[in-house]
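Worked problem 6 (solution included).
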Amino acid sequence: MDRQLSPADHPAFLPYQRRVLNEAAELGDRLARLRAFMQSKEFAAAPAMERVLLRVQEGQMAALRVTLHARAELFNEQRWAQARGGL
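Solution. The predicted structure is:
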């Protein structure tokens, strides 16, 4: 899902589904900022262990983002099935 997720685009989502969409969007922003930082001189100058831990964090954030996007896709599939009468 490359498009920015927005609960406002889908007002029919349930509250918990909107929270998932919000979390995915916020996480995408934080992940982009972390990745930008990891390209900076400040990152290169950081202690080795801190760089290692930031790389681990980046991987975990990316994995969570994939999971949140998969959940959002599931919400869409469920809505399509309901709209088509459960087919």
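Discussion: The chain has a mean pLDDT of 87.
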